[in-house]
């Protein structure tokens, strides 16, 4: 989560420095928001899985892996949007 926070701060500072127009800010805010929403769901799913089973269970491992993959995918998409905003 600290990586997402650092990336958020860097993107906001870079956007302010480049004096982005509102349409580009909207794209960045949506991308940042989606990553944070994904991270929140991932955390909730992991905590719920830990309550359901204290032992290692293959299905719970898959659920945790899938929720972590969703965060990774949202972060990759956010990087692509950031590249478009700052380089495009």
What does this structure look like?
It contains three helices and no strands. It is an all-alpha fold and 88 residues long. The model has no long low-confidence stretch (mean pLDDT 95). It has helices at residues 2-18, 22-52, 58-87. It is 89% helix and 0% strand. The chain has one domain: Helix Hairpins, CATH 1.10.287.3610.
Lay out the secondary structure.
Blueprint: H1 2-18, H2 22-52, H3 58-87
Helix pairs in contact: 1-2, 2-3
Summarize, please:
It is built from three helices and no strands.
What features would you highlight for this structure?
single chain; 88 residues; mainly alpha; Helix Hairpins; elongated
Specify the biggest β-sheet. Answer: none
Number of helices: 3
Any idea of the CATH topology? Helix Hairpins
C-alpha termini separation: 28 Å
**Order of SSEs:** HHH
Q: What would you call the shape?
A: elongated
Tell me what the CATH architecture is.
Orthogonal Bundle
Q: Considering DSSP H and I runs of 4 or more, what fraction of the residues is helical? A: over 70%
| Percent strand | under 5%
**Domain tally:** 1
Low-confidence stretches: none
Please tally the β strands and state the result: 0
Radius of gyration: 16 Å
| Coarse structural class | mainly alpha
Q: Overall pLDDT, averaged? A: 95
Q: What is the class in the CATH system?
A: Mainly Alpha
């Amino acid at each position: 989560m600290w990586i997402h926070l650092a990336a958020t701060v860097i993107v906001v500072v870079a956007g302010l420095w480049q004096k982005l127009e509102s349409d580009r800010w909207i794209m960045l805010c949506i991308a940042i928001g989606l990553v944070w929403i994904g991270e929140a769901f991932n955390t909730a799913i992991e905590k719920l899985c830990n309550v359901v089973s204290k032992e290692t269970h293959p299905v719970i491992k898959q659920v945790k892996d899938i929720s972590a993959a969703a965060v990774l995918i949202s972060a990759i998409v956010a990087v692509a949007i950031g590249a478009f905003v700052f380089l495009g």
